[in-house]
Amino acid sequence: MEDVKQKLYYKYYLLKIETSDMMRSHPILIWNCSSITLSLKSGIQIHLFMQEGSSLTLQAFGHRGAAGHAPENTLASFQMAMDLGVDWIELDVQRVEDALIVFHDSRLDRTTNGTGLVANHSLASIRALDVGNGECVPLLEEVFDLMNHHCGINIELKGANTAKLTVEMSQRYIQEEGWRPDQILISSFDLDQLAEVRKYSVDLQIALLYQWPRNRFIEQALELKATAIHIPERFSREHTIANIHANHMKVHVYTVDAINRILKLKHMGVDGIFSNFPERIIKARDIV
Ligand code: G3P
Ligand code: MG
After folding, report:
1. Which residue has the higher pLDDT, 288 or 4?
2. Long-range contacts: 220-225, Cβ < 8 Å, 24+?
3. CATH of the structural domain 59-284, one choice from 3.90.1170.50, 3.20.20.190, 3.40.50.300, 3.30.450.20
4. Alpha-carbon distance 248 to 229, whole Å?
5. Cβ of residue 255 lying under 6 Å from some atom of ligand 1
6. Total-model pTM
7. 121-179: per-residue pLDDT in tens?
8. Which residue ranges make up each domain of the chain?
9. Using a 6 Å cutoff on CB, does residue 92 contact ligand 1?
10. Helices (H) and strands (E) in the chain — how many of each?
């Protein structure tokens, strides 16, 4: 990620159009550094908001590594994602005993040769499972070591008691292993876990994840001092994207595999996309 030039540019978003009798006879252009208000003779008022900080480089997040190419959330998948040139790998962590394992489901059945709830197994028995192609369930520190700060890591907290261990491990890799704080992004659907992250660290980057839009999600993200909001593709609307940008946060959209939909999101101005085939995001950067 070090050699990726983050170019900044400006976007204008149409926020609202209003009519006002008072303005009908006085066309006015009001300009300041972040917004333009244009009042037309007809009485129509147009507000444009200028957003700085969007990245010209559409960020490629390898979902569970490169899950379209290798067993998800495995070292092979993360290596593949890095080889494909992602900016970020995304992974899911759960706590088992005193460790953070990289694993998505609450059950073992779909992705391993084991059965039952993760919570009902010991760390040793989970580590002995086959996740496909001879891969095992990795520990978070094994992924940090493999990546060796060659790209960013988006750690999604799944479940209880993951925040404190994740913060401690992230801080250790920043202090001792050459990671930069801006290469680590901690996200979760669980607001309590995110609040705990913020309690233990004022510096680490946070992203709020949501599945369904709800009231106050922007306020909640601002309260957490989040740098980004991760939204599902089906709720990626222009006004949602503009609203998040207007509050100086990035918009990352999950999980999109079709190139035409990746391109559509790019044209809508999102900052990053999660994909099981992250090379398609990289390809989309060069398609007009
Ligand atoms: O972090 C984006 C995405 O991974 C969230 O959903 O279920 O794939 O973890 P999920
Ligand atoms: Mg995830």
Report:
1. 288
2. 220/191, 221/247, 221/249, 222/247, 222/249, 224/191, 224/194, 224/195, 224/198, 225/198
3. 3.20.20.190
4. 10
5. yes
6. 0.84
7. 999 999 999 999 999 999 999 999 999 999 999 999 998 999 999 999 999 999 999 99
8. 5-49, 59-284
9. yes
10. 9, 13
Please give the structure tokens belonging to residue 153.
Answer: 């890591």
Contact 39, 54 (CB under 8 A): no
The identity of residue 139, as a single letter, is L
Q: Enter the tokens of residue 157.
A: 């907290």
Among 26, 47, 63, 69, the active-site one is 63
Three-class DSSP labels, 54-67: EECCCEEEECCCCC
pLDDT category of residue 42 using cuts at 50, 70 and 90: confident
**pLDDT higher than 50, residue 11:** no
Give the tens place of pLDDT for each residue, 186-204.
999 999 999 999 999 999 9
Position 41 scores a pLDDT of: 67
The DSSP result for 215-274, as a single string, is: TTHHHHHHHTT-SEEEEEGGG--HHHHHHHHHTT-EEEEE----HHHHHHHHHHT-SEEE
Q: Is 63 a catalytic residue?
A: yes
CB of 88 within 6 A of ligand 1: the answer is no
Structure tokens at 244: 């998040």
